[in-house]
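Retry 2 of 3 after timeout on previous attempt. Resubmitting structure tokens to design endpoint.
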């Protein structure tokens, strides 16, 4: 019985522990004209609510859906791979919310005229300074893309 109550309590409280509302992920729109064989940069910005900062460690990860159109250096990119700008507060490092992360990618040379959706999932942690809590966040963004036939 105790296990059932504990499980039910965890199930009820788990959305509160994830803290989805603590960080908003902003992604720059893809260029209107994507050319096959060309390189671009996806700009991601994690905007924490007031009184919060996104932790540098544990490292935030950016997972990119496999695609035949987009070519990324890796499927799962650590924030450390992107040379992030950091700020320090109370002896700990945090991502600078004013500086977007730039994820380089190429458009496959054989994808002329292709239409696809890129799914970007960001997992990380943020600190809420008023309560001294560190909470996990997950944000998912889908971007539609059309590759030029030229």
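Retry 2 succeeded. Sequence:
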């Amino acid at each position: 019985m105790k296990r059932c109550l504990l499980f039910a309590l965890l199930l009820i409280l788990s959305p509160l522990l994830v803290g989805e509302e603590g960080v908003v992920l902003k992604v720059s729109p893809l260029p209107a004209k994507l050319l096959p064989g060309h390189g671009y940069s996806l700009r991601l910005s994690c905007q924490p609510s007031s009184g919060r900062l996104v932790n540098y460690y544990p490292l935030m990860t950016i997972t990119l859906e496999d695609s035949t159109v987009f070519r990324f250096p890796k499927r799962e990119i650590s924030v450390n791979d992107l040379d992030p700008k950091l700020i320090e507060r109370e002896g700990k490092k945090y991502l600078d919310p004013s500086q977007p992360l730039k994820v380089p990618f190429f458009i496959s040379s054989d994808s002329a005229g292709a239409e696809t959706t890129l799914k970007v999932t960001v997992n990380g942690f943020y600190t809420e300074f008023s309560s001294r809590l560190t909470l996990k966040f997950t944000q998912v963004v889908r971007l539609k893309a059309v590759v030029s036939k030229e």
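Attempt log closed. Confidence is low (pLDDT under 50) at residues 3-19.
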